[in-house]
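Final report, section 2: Outcomes. Of the targets proposed, PKD/REJ-like domain-containing protein is the one most frequently requested by collaborating groups, and we therefore present its record in full.
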Amino acid sequence: MQTIHFYCHLIWGVWCFLQVIAKDYVQLSHDGPVVLGGTITFRADVYRDGKRPKETFIYIWNDNSLMKHKYESKETSNTTTFWSINYPRESNIPGNYTVELEVKYLTYSIFWVFYTSARIEFEISESLNGNVAIKQVNKTIAGEYVSSTNETKLTIDLRKGDYNFIMQKATAILTYWFIDCKYYGQTNDFAFVYNFTSPGITYEVGALVIASYDPPTTTTMAPTTTIAPVNVTTVASNTTITNSNGTLVAVITLPITITSVKHLMKSTIALPINISTIEPANISLPYICSNTSLIPPDPKKTYGYFYKKIRVRAPVSNISVEGTNWIQPWDMLSLNVTCKGSGPFSKCLQFHRGKYNATGNETCDYVDLNLHSCNFSIIHYFLEPGVYTILIILNNEVSTQIYPLTINIYKVTTKPQLSVIVVPVSCSVVAVVLIVFGVAYYIQSRARFTIEVADFDFGQSNPEMEYKTFTERLRDSFNNTVRPGSKQLNVRYYGSMNH
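The predicted structure is given below as tokens.
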């Protein structure tokens, strides 16, 4: 018996220890806040040590709202469960509430043991929940910047539960649009199209959605230019109101209950879309612009006011590059890039070897942000000859331009300069010519002089020289020979040397 008690306590102790060290938890989430009268959905995900456990569970939900809702699920092996609950307008009030979930699992196929629990807060709001979505060129814009060259479509993106509620319950839904607290008309499809054409300007867009639950009736209203008390209580759907000259003044596409002149203006009259001078105070709409007096909302209607700040920028265009893109290796590439558009800009440079075709989906790891003017330099050294491509990526929140720039790095083959060849050849030719002329001149000069050997015939008698001594005759012969104009030396020696 003691052995049995020992093992029982051992098993219980091990089980308690495992429960302590095991990380069992449930993660709660919801799609709230929810408008009064709408439905909210809660989600629970069960984990053990970060993994999905394989157990059989039951989920016990409860909240602390006025009606104290409670729900217990059936046995299930699913580790993900949902609970959707509706909060009617008649029995609930707006505020913050809490939902708590308790999870139990089946052990030994008999006992339901506590597994884990969690709680989460949620809000029941008096007005519709959502935001203003911006689209340009059929593309949703995540931020608040729009292009000045494209048409802008503004759409009310309602929370799914709120949208389903008013679409099922409301008999009329209208959206009133305001830009910088000026009324621009109404629509019944939660959408409005406008062109923001002034770069550098910030606009404040407001939209008021009014859902009415009054039953529609068919009543026509005669056009009039003077507002006076009338007994009209409703306006039929698809009613077109025109003035005396046939110009369209308003288009009514959904039935709306009218209880007074103010409600008449508020619910049925749509001013021409190009009129922007009517102040919201003159049309008596609640929740529009913080600097105007508010009108108490009708408790029989559901309202939703949505606000969006829009900043307008001119897209990036006319990218130009100044500088040479033909350089030698180790020479510095120096280019200057300019473009047009609204700043600030962000730029990114990508370097690719060879020719590169841009796809338009390129991203950068390093981006130079906050360039207030689109004017910057590109300085780079290329060590290897070849063809390179520099991708210039410019962005200013509303557009992205990718500009591929081809860079040619050429290697020059070293050749002798022309002077190195011309000068030696010219000098050689001149030297040869001088030598030829010198030799010719020398030969010609030698040909002009003929030297004859003096022939002295001292044995022949000459009457004129008999009386002269040998010395005198020799002197006379030399004198005759070297006389001016004479080109020959004629020396004759006559007679005997003894004379």
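The two ends are 189 Å apart (CA to CA).
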